[in-house]
Design brief:
Layout (H helix, E strand, L loop, with lengths): L15 H7 L3 H14 L23 H4 L2 H9 L17 H4 L4 H9 L1
This protein binds iron/sulfur cluster (2 copies).
The site of one iron/sulfur cluster has 12 residues, from helix 1.
Length: 112
């Protein structure tokens, strides 16, 4: 279960992309793509892109998460998550997530 907390602290277990993937649910892929195109101002997101097993799980990733700078930084530094990093409270990279989803910080603290 812990591994379903993403590098940034988001909860992959509650993510519609992961839920659609593990249930092979094409209807949820479509509604998720519709929602994310608007929410993330990303008109190129298609239902076929909605496939992800989770940030820290083995398997396919949603391509935005695959390319995520936070995830890359965590891996480069050899951490499991940003919660292992002393710079987290002042980090301008992960703050892009934490300012909108403060519970991600709580999720990371719960891992330690
Ligand atoms: S890594 Fe995958 S499951 Fe986690 S938030 Fe990103 S898209 Fe959702
Ligand atoms: S520098 Fe920022 S993004 Fe990189 S591991 Fe530390 S907190 Fe995470």
């Amino acid at each position: 279960m812990e591994k379903l907390i993403a590098c940034c602290g988001l909860n992959c277990a509650a993510c519609d992309a992961r839920i659609a993937t593990i249930n092979n649910d094409d209807e949820l892929r479509k509604t998720t793509a519709d929602k994310w195109r608007v929410n993330y101002n990303s008109p190129d997101i298609t239902p076929a892109m909605i496939n992800c097993t989770g940030c820290r799980e083995e398997g396919i990733k949603f391509n935005y998460c695959e390319m995520c700078e936070i995830r890359k930084c965590v891996k480069m530094k050899g951490f499991d998550t940003c919660g292992d990093c002393r710079e987290m409270d002042t980090c301008s990279i992960v703050s892009a997530v934490h300012k909108y989803v403060p519970e991600a910080i709580t999720n990371l603290r719960s891992l330690n």
